[in-house]
Amino acid sequence: MDDKGYAEIGYVFTYLASAIVLASVIGACISLTAESRDASTEIILQDTANRIAGGVEKMVYMANSHPNSTYSVDVSFPLEIRGSSAEMKYAIEVTNDTVYINASDSIRVRSIIHNFGNINIKVVPKDSIKGSILVREYASGATQTVKITWDAEEKCIAVRKA
Asked: Of the chain's two ends, which shows fewer C-beta atoms within 10 Å, N or C?
């Protein structure tokens, strides 16, 4: 009896088993990388929302303290979010009490604005859709800036893309 056939079948099964294990490990690594990327993106966008809400709160304070003055603050945040080869779009929406950031990857964050005195907050449309500030992110390492201004004449806080 010839054992040559059994050795070849054993080799094929060993090869298939190792290929399945390798594919499983690669799939798990890709999944973990995507989850990590999404988590870090959410942290960066939450920080951005908090910075914008903080800038609006400064404007609310100035509007309540010095209603006849004009004052502005620029809020900058990193433009590179996803790394060197990825591109992501996100929209910043500001209402009278909340800053929302909705990303193209279904990542949504928000930050509450403490608007004591109910100062009117409006988004000045500029490169925008329906009053949102549309920011297109490229991996360039630069920063994006949002300008927040207290307009004493119109008695409102304007938020716009700088």
From this structure: N
